[in-house]
Amino acid sequence: MISKTMENALNKQINEELFSAYLYLSMAAYFEEIGLKGFSNWMRVQYEEETFHAMKIYDYLLSRGGKVVLQAIKEPQKNWESPLDVFKATLKHEQHITKCINDLIDIAEKEHDRATFNFLQWYIDEQVEEEANDEEIIRKLELIKDNPNALFMLDRELASRVFNKPTLK
């Protein structure tokens, strides 16, 4: 049985992950509106990943005898200045999620909940990857500056991204 403290924290994280999905869907719409379908695709894949992350916690919480309590998802931002602005916001958001995961790890340690501590290790690895992906695209966008040809080449590259549902233990 999972502690009430850990249950509440995991429910909060489900909300964080669903907000992430909502935010990335809003970013996808922004990119679609400005004609960057590849960027939009990249964000749609992010949406799918974040939904997967939320459901992984949802299923884990239920498997430990916890109660899932879904909370209202706040409205995401809708407009940005540029693709670079979007990815800077994405990186900032992922850094927030990394802090949330680290806070969950702290709670699991305090609660002596080794099962949840172990479960959360996957998220630690995932966050390292998420931040690295954002940083790579930011570097590319900074190099591109105002070169539309380079932007369209990056758009084509981002269009090839697909969601590969991770296999779980």
CATH topology: Ferritin
CATH architectural group: Up-down Bundle
Helix content, binned percent:
over 70%
Superfamily at the CATH H level? Ferritin, core subunit, four-helix bundle
User: What is the residue-mean pLDDT, rounded to a whole number?
Assistant: 96
SSE sequence, one letter per element: HHHHH
Describe this structure in words.
- It is a single chain.
- This protein has helices at residues 4-33, 37-63, 83-110, 114-144, 148-159.
- The two termini are 20 Å apart.
- It is mostly helical.
- It contains 5 helices and no strands.
- It has a single domain, classed as Up-down Bundle (Ferritin), CATH 1.20.1260.
Feature tags:
Ferritin; 169 residues; 76% helix; mainly alpha
